[in-house]
Specification:
The protein has about 375 residues and is an alpha+beta fold. The protein is built from 14 helices and 17 strands.
Length: about 375
């Protein structure tokens, strides 16, 4: 295990490498069986700048996410994109890091309202596959003409470079939140209700449906956040739009969304877990098509139905062929988030890309990792 304590040590280690490296942050996320020497950024820690009045924070990539959250809470602020904690779902024991969050572009239920993690990333520092230190975005000192490296690095899973520092925007924590909840709807009814809420002018910040195979009794939930008076008013108007819903407030409301954020209902249950992105109205279509194809599953529909978490039996390919066949028809992508080592060794983690997009991806990797040593094979 290579564990550099500084950006300089990291650059030297990558520059001297003569074999593939398996890049990781705090070790909380499963990847394909590692190909190469493990390299962790967990030694690159510390908040280097925090200006609450400017809503900006700069931290080294290995800084524990909990440290970031604690600092923000002390100032009445938060990470707007609600990053999930996957440790219980994946059965891992590492420490989530801010660099890992952005490397995976990890975004929770608030994505539909506030945007993804990458939308709050202002600047990055990273070491590319040649061992060069590159900076882009906020506090720029060295740039690479023609590339928006801030956006490229978010969700690149360490295949273009190893993050050493991130600059990000934060927001104030709202005064109140409440969730409207109904039980017993099927996925089509549930997603229709979510779409109605999202199409309203009442600033919904969470919209999810948990199928009957997830929570025993199906649950459909809609969240609103903001000033107390505004939350009360908007809940009242949404109840007019969504008859049969009830309101849950405060900590009980927050617990409902932590459960969705962390995919908690699938933690401790046997099977493979898939993260599937489709158009919101196509979530139930995908589920029905998989059942028709003989792929039994439990489903959580987040982001108004546009993000579908699937729990499938891990035998054979865990439904990979059917899931990805449907993705070709519907559009979107499917990621194998959890599975045994044998399954992850034979089923690609990420959706195979169409040829034109694959060519662009190869070109980017050739530019930033010409020797092909950073997480080789992970993203095609």
């Amino acid at each position: 295990m290579i564990a550099p304590a500084s950006e300089t040590e990291l650059a030297e280690a990558i520059s001297a490498a003569n074999a593939p490296m398996s890049i990781r942050g705090g070790g909380t996320r499963l990847q394909a069986p590692p190909d190469g020497t493990p390299l962790t950024t967990s030694g690159l820690t510390g908040i280097t700048l925090y200006e609450p009045g400017a809503l900006t924070l700069v931290a080294r990539a290995g800084t524990p996410l909990s440290e970031i959250i604690t600092a923000l809470e002390a100032e009445g602020q938060r990470l707007p994109f609600e990053p999930p904690n996957m440790r219980n779902l994946l059965g891992t024991e590492g420490t989530p890091t801010i660099g890992g969050v952005f490397a995976a572009n990890a975004s929770g239920p608030r994505r539909i309202n506030g945007g993804a993690a990458r939308d709050y990333l202002l600047g990055v520092r990273f070491v590319d596959g040649a061992g060069q230190v590159i900076k882009n975005g906020g506090r720029v000192m060295k740039n690479v003409t023609g590339y928006d490296l801030v956006k490229l690095m978010a969700g690149s899973w360490g295949t273009l470079g190893v993050l050493t520092e991130v600059s990000l925007k934060v927001l104030a924590r709202p005064e109140a939140e409440a969730t409207l909840i109904a039980r017993g709807m099927d996925p089509v009814q549930g997603v229709a209700a979510l779409s109605a809420a999202l199409g309203s002018p009442f600033d919904v910040s969470g919209a999810a449906h948990l199928g009957a195979g997830v929570a025993g009794v199906a649950r459909t939930q809609v969240r609103v956040e903001g000033m107390s008076g505004s939350v009360i008013y908007r809940c009242g108007r949404l109840l007019e739009l969504l008859p049969g819903f009830e309101v849950i407030e405060g900590g009980a409301s927050a617990a409902l969304w932590e459960e969705v954020r962390d995919v908690a209902p699938f933690a401790g249950r046997k099977g493979a877990v898939w993260r599937v992105s489709v158009k919101p109205g196509d979530g139930p279509v995908l589920s029905d098509a998989l059942l028709t194809a003989g792929v039994d599953h439990a489903a959580i529909f987040d982001w108004g139905g546009g993000l579908v978490w699937l729990l499938t039996d891990e035998t054979n390919d865990a439904g990979a062929a059917s899931i990805r066949q449907q993705i070709v028809a519907l559009g979107g992508h499917a990621t194998l988030v959890r599975g045994g080592e044998a399954l992850r060794g034979r089923v690609p983690m990420f959706q195979p890309q169409p040829a034109p997009l694959a060519a662009i991806s190869r070109g980017l990797r050739d530019r930033f990792d010409p020797r092909g040593i950073l997480n080789p094979g992970l993203m095609g």
